[in-house]
């Protein structure tokens, strides 16, 4: 990343105190950006607070669904670049409460895009989609030009997010770029229903890890620092021909089953005998999802920097320290 590129640049991050948002804001601050972060709910134990990032950015309290607030942020703070990360991110919650998920992930996205359209100084809006936007497909790994065919509530909300960003570019020339990432993990993720946070907490507490699926679903697990790197690369190149208006996959090229991931987690934690209970209760989950990042590799020379083994070791150390301090 270029320090000179981000120096004094006015950057708006939605979901600033979320898992990815905290890491992205931390790096933007280190690069000299002038960061404005949308924060809806206080999370006292968040990475965002732990690292003191809340004191280094301008916090904007509010909700994506407040269209007036989004417009005020872009205009009053003269936003140059927006990273739109905020969303309801949990599949099980989306299945249980589709309406709130659609309001946050779909209506929230068009509020951000509309505000960016109405402010003439917007130079880039990087929109967080997901590998989930592709839905269940026989084409693996996913590539950017295949259809988006999600059906379940969370997956569909990311498809709509993705298509809205593309629509605002093609219709209004809002300078959008879409990021589609695999499942990311790392220090600071407090969504305990996810396999990595929940698994490490179970190992640390000497509890049995309850596995919702039958252990066979295959995913790409992507270290959060590499995710941040991917977003910053998109931000630096967003105005270029061949980038603006496009979608880019980011991942590791290494996909594993849930049970394979758990074995690697046991190794990282030094807990080879940790007990698991495979329940097979999960519903509406796709058997296999993983991405090709060849397009990003060709366009930017981008590569992931962290192996799954190294990322899990770093992540376990964070959870161990977090648990001791709690």
Provide a descriptive summary of the structure in words.
The protein has about 325 residues and is an alpha/beta fold. It has two domains: about 5-185 and about 220-255 and about 290-305, 3-Layer(aba) Sandwich (Rossmann fold); about 195-215 and about 255-290 and about 310-325, UDP-galactose 4-epimerase, domain 1 (Alpha-Beta Complex). Helices cover about 45% and strands about 15% of the residues. The strands form three sheets. A seven-stranded parallel sheet has the order 3-2-1-4-5-6-10, sandwiched between helices. The model has no long low-confidence stretch (mean pLDDT about 95).
Tell me the name of the CATH class of the largest domain.
Alpha Beta
Radius of gyration: 19 Å
Please name the CATH topology of the largest domain.
Answer: Rossmann fold
User: Any idea how many domains?
Assistant: 2
How do the strands line up in the largest sheet? 3-2-1-4-5-6-10
Helix-strand category: alpha/beta
Tell me the strand percentage band. 15-25%
Topology order in helix (H) and strand (E) letters: HEHEHEHEHHEHEEHEEHEEHEHH
Give the averaged pLDDT, no decimals.
94
Full CATH superfamily name of the largest domain: NAD(P)-binding Rossmann-like Domain
Task: Annotate the secondary structure layout.
Layout: H1 3-6, E1 10-14, H2 19-30, E2 34-39, H3 47-50, E3 58-61, H4 67-76, E4 81-84, H5 91-96, H6 98-118, E5 124-128, H7 153-172, E6 176-181, E7 183-185, H8 195-205, E8 209-211, E9 218-223, H9 224-237, E10 247-250, E11 255-257, H10 258-269, E12 276-278, H11 294-300, H12 308-325
Parallel strand pairs: 1-2, 1-4, 2-3, 4-5, 5-6, 6-10, 7-9, 8-12
Antiparallel strand pairs: 9-11
Helix pairs in contact: 2-9, 4-6, 6-7, 8-10, 8-12, 10-12
């Amino acid at each position: 990343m270029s320090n000179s590129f981000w120096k004094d640049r006015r950057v708006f991050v939605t979901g600033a105190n979320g898992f990815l948002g905290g890491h992205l804001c931390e790096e933007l601050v280190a690069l000299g950006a002038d960061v404005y972060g949308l924060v809806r709910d206080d999370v006292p134990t968040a990475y965002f607070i732990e690292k003191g990032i809340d004191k280094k950015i301008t916090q904007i309290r509010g909700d994506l669904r407040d269209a007036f607030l989004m417009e005020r942020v872009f205009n009053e703070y003269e936003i140059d670049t927006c990273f739109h990360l905020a969303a309801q991110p949990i599949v099980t919650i989306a299945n249980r409460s589709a309406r709130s998920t659609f309001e946050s992930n779909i209506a929230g996205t068009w509020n951000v895009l509309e505000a960016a359209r109405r402010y003439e100084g917007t130079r880039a809006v990087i929109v967080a989609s997901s590998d989930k936007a592709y839905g269940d497909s026989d084409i693996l790994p996913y590539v950017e030009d295949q259809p988006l065919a999600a059906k379940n509530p969370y997956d569909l909300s990311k498809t709509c997010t993705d298509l809205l960003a593309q629509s605002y570019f093609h219709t209004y020339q809002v300078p959008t770029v879409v990021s589609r990432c695999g499942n990311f993990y790392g220090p600071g993720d407090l969504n305990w229903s996810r396999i990595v946070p929940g698994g490490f907490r179970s190992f640390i507490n000497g509890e049995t890890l309850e596995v919702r699926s039958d252990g066979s679903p295959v995913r790409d697990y992507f270290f959060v620092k590499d995710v941040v790197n991917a977003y910053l690369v998109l931000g630096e190149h967003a105005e270029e021909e061949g980038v603006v208006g496009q979608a880019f996959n980011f991942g590791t090229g290494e996909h594993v089953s849930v049970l394979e991931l758990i074995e690697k987690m046991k190794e990282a934690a030094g807990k080879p005998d940790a007990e698991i209970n495979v329940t097979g209760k999960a519903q509406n989950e796709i058997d296999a999802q993983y991405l090709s990042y060849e397009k990003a590799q060709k366009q930017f020379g981008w590569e992931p920097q962290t192996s799954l083994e190294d990322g899990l070791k770093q992540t376990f150390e964070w959870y161990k320290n977090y648990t001791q301090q709690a």
